[in-house]
Design brief:
Elements: H1 16-28, H2 32-49, H3 59-70, H4 111-121, H5 126-146, H6 153-163, H7 185-193
Helix pairs in contact: 1-2, 2-3, 4-5, 5-6
């Protein structure tokens, strides 16, 4: 058995080895007319493999460019379009430098502490109080997802004090909200099972 790792590297792996073998066969055909007919057949197969290329303005040109590349530009036919030489080994773009910073408390992520810092910069008033309320409720949701046993109002209040160094104290009444629970899979399955079939 011959493994793909033992064979030549494909110039365009997205088309697969079978299409590459067709292209290699087309290159080896002596008769130009027969070679051209073979090329058109391969183009039609390649087009069928990627129907999304039909939406691209120069989709036919793209396919012919790919065919020429796969043949190593050795396919001697009268191309219906002008072929653009493509470098098969195009340089990969450089990796972007992302700013990585430690997240203090992972289940809250980076945004919750940032929002709490933002509230400290705001003037006292309804807008500030509403933002604090929304952040506190989000923190409670995050805790419920992370660990239901630790998702208490007191825990959220303590965490807000921690993030704001005691500058914001939330009233527990803000957090007395029941979040809708998702039905378990078994209940969902039962309800579907019990539906009447018409």
């Amino acid at each position: 058995m011959i493994y793909n790792t033992q064979q030549n590297e494909l110039p365009m792996p997205e088309y697969g080895r079978s299409v590459q073998e067709m292209v290699d066969h087309a290159v080896s055909i002596q008769d130009k007319e027969e070679r051209t007919n073979c090329a058109y057949t391969i183009i039609s197969i390649m087009g069928g493999m990627f129907p999304n290329l039909r939406d691209i303005a120069d989709n036919k040109k793209t396919l012919w460019d790919h065919l020429a590349l796969m043949s190593g530009y050795k396919l001697d036919i009268d191309y219906p379009v002008e072929i653009t030489h493509i470098d098969a080994k195009v340089q990969k773009p450089e990796l972007l430098n992302y700013s990585y910073s430690e997240v203090a408390v992972r289940h809250y992520g980076r945004i919750v502490p940032e929002l709490l810092q933002k509230t400290l910069e705001m003037e006292e008033g309804e807008q500030r109080n509403e933002l604090i309320r929304l952040v506190a409720l989000q923190m409670k949701k995050d805790l419920l997802v992370w660990n239901k046993e630790l998702a208490s109002n007191q825990r959220v209040i303590e965490d807000i004090k921690y993030f704001t160094k005691g500058q914001i104290v939330v009233d527990e009444s803000v957090l007395n909200v029941e979040f809708a629970k998702q039905p378990s899979q078994s209940k969902q399955y039962q309800s579907k099972k019990n539906r009447k079939k018409f």
